[in-house]
Amino acid sequence: MAAEYRSRMPTWRRLLAAVRLPLPVHQWLRPGGPVRTGPTPEERATIAAAQAALAHMLAAVRTEVTEVGELLAVVEFPSDPAPGVSDALARALDSYDAAARLVDDVADVVELAGVVVLAGDARAALVVAAAHHRREAVPPLPRPCFFNPLHGRSDRTAVWRTGYKTTLRVPACPRCRKAVRRGDAPEALVDRAPDGRVVPYYAVDTAHSVWAATGFGAFRPDLAARVQRGEHRTRRRGHRS
Ligand SMILES: [Zn+2]
């Protein structure tokens, strides 16, 4: 089941590689927005390439959300469900609903990562529901890499030192686990803090970012509900200040 689930995941790392361009991320967080007055022709070409890559990635993400919606549309809700089935189906529906709302309104690459995570959660919840329905053991399902959910999912964790005596166990992809083991900074998904600094997304004040507050679901299970309530818009207001 877990293998079947994994095989259907899109290759986000490949897509992400397409947008890894030598351009500060805050310059393309808002595709289409002005960068500054009078960019050089070279800068203009680089920005256009980044925007095209981001648009390509968004199209792939939109296809994934549509596929998850089609899966949900053909699920037959059992009239006398086995224990666990209803909860898992409700989670799949909530995660899909949040992904579908967000994908039509994506402001930047951090929110795009949010759609990827939510659509993946919906798929994972469907796998769990199916296991409960067949009265099989529920498979351990991989979770998004905490440092950058676009790295893909992993069923392994890294022990991440967040302070002098503080450590957290977080899901992490092989490359990020290796970096943490070496004591290096993982290749994190970056975001722009309200003061304008470009930092790892999890370093943004949790009051400003639902993604930092939940670790894209690594710390809290209510990411879908928060997006359904529109809490991700707080971060957008921070970007405008
Ligand atoms: Zn990673």
Write structural notes for this entry.
With 241 residues, this protein is mainly alpha-helical. The protein has one domain. It has 9 helices and 6 strands. A two-stranded antiparallel sheet has the order 1-2. A two-stranded antiparallel ribbon has the order 3-4. α2 packs antiparallel against α3 (41-73), α3 (41-73) runs parallel beside α5 (109-133) and α4 (85-103) packs antiparallel against α5 (109-133). The longest helix has 33 residues, at 41-73. The protein is globular. The termini are far apart. Mean pLDDT is 83; it is low at 1-11 and 18-33. Bound molecules: zinc ion. Zinc ion is lined by residues 145, 147-148, 151, 172-173, 175-176, 186.
Low-confidence stretches: 1-11, 18-33
How many structural domains? Answer: 1
Estimate the mean pLDDT confidence: 83
Order of helices and strands: HHHHHEEEEHEEHHH
Major sheet, described briefly? 2 strands, antiparallel
Helix content: 40-55%
Strands ordered across the widest β-sheet: 1-2
Radius of gyration: 19 Å
How many helices?
A: 9
Shape descriptor: globular
Write down how many β-strands occur, each being a DSSP E stretch of 2 or more residues. Answer: 6
Ligand identities: zinc ion
In terms of structural class, how would the helical and strand content be classed?
A: mainly alpha
Record the SSE blueprint.
Layout (H helix, E strand, L loop, with lengths): L1 H6 L4 H7 L22 H33 L11 H19 L5 H25 L9 E2 L8 E2 L2 E5 L5 E5 L2 H9 L7 E3 L5 E3 L9 H5 L8 H6 L4 H8 L1
Antiparallel strand pairs: 1-2, 3-4, 5-6
Helix pairs in contact: 2-3, 3-4, 3-5, 4-5
The structure holds zinc ion.
